[in-house]
Design goal:
mainly alpha; Ribonucleotide Reductase, subunit A; 75% helix; globular
Length: 314
């Protein structure tokens, strides 16, 4: 791989400029407001659901915001371990790299605390119970069992997703409640430096690695996506259950099918396709392995073709 023009020191310097404290963004005395959407329609697609009235669409938007924040808190679990491992590998080596990686780890801990605080406030203020994914440590173990390049690839994937979501979907959406938008803006500001550190770490790992080993890492990357796909389907079912409680009614089989197909596709599009189509992600994967870059494009096309396909029945 070609070495990028930026350095670990550049990442630290930029990180210090955009740094923020948890209590500045989400103070403990915050009360969540549910009059406006918390997530953009570009990610939730709730307005496409003809079986829901406007009030129910808004409730589903709020349910999705809680699931979204929890999912990122969920992912931070393995990333924290990953960055500490990489810092330990640099011990007695490049001090700029150690500093960047330890700062990366500390920021991920802060992000996890931010998302967990939002979810705690949501549970308190929403008015009805909701369900979200749990047992992040078990999933972290599965991800970390894969090849180091695969783990960095999936990390890079979700960090560019963070950037894509904020810049393309959230930044200019004036219809949104400003608090969740601020949370995701500040998350993105620090993740932008993490993308660069991922790139630097990938360059180190790929150095001297044979093409077949890199292709095996891409196999692992796709396996991680598959495992996460199953989790997103589980979260879709939990969202529908949470919405039924919030709406005070049970959905018919036809309504359930409409909601699940729409929401499952929107999860896949937001968390998978947007990452795999991101220019930064594609540029780095192509540099890493042109053959496996083509595999990423092929998988993206499969996801896109499934957008208008019914994935679940009655």
């Amino acid at each position: 791989m070609k070495a990028p023009k930026f350095s670990y020191k550049n990442c630290v310097d930029l990180s210090e400029k955009v740094s923020w404290r948890l209590d500045q963004i989400l103070p403990e005395d915050t009360i969540l407001n549910f009059e406006k959407p918390h997530m953009p329609e570009a990610l939730t697609e709730t307005d496409q659901l003809t079986c829901l009235n406007q009030s129910e669409q808004l409730k589903l938007n709020h349910v999705r915001s809680n699931s979204y924040m929890n999912f990122f808190a969920f992912l931070e679990e393995y990333i924290i371990v990953l960055t500490v491992q990489h810092a330990q590998a640099e011990m007695y080596g490049d001090h700029d790299a150690i500093r960047a990686l330890l700062r990366f780890s500390e920021e991920e801990l802060k992000h996890q605390a931010l998302f967990k605080r939002y979810c705690r406030f949501f549970d308190r203020d929403f008015g009805t119970s909701t369900k979200v994914l749990d047992q992040p440590a078990a999933i972290a173990d599965v991800i970390l069992s894969k090849s180091p390049i695969a783990v960095l690839l999936i990390t890079l994937h979700f960090e560019v997703v963070t950037q894509q979501h904020y810049i393309e979907c959230i930044k200019d959406d004036d219809a949104l409640d400003p608090l969740p938008s601020s949370i995701l803006k500040h998350h993105w500001l620090e993740e932008a430096q993490h993308i660069k550190i991922d790139h630097l770490e990938l360059c180190k790992l790929a150095q001297g690695m044979p093409p077949e080993a890199i292709s095996k890492a891409f196999d692992d990357y796709f396996e991680i996506l598959s495992a996460l796909d199953g989790l997103l389907e589980q979260q879709t079912d939990m969202d529908i259950e949470s919405l039924q409680i919030a709406a005070g009614r049970q959905f018919t089989n036809e309504e359930f099918t409409e909601i699940k197909n729409c929401q499952y596709h929107s999860y896949r599009n937001g968390f998978f396709v947007m990452g795999m189509e991101n220019k930064i992600f594609l540029r780095i994967t192509k540099d890493l392995s042109p053959i496996d870059y083509e595999r990423v494009l092929e998988q993206t096309e499969i996801f896109n073709k499934q957008k208008n396909t019914e994935l679940v029945g009655d």
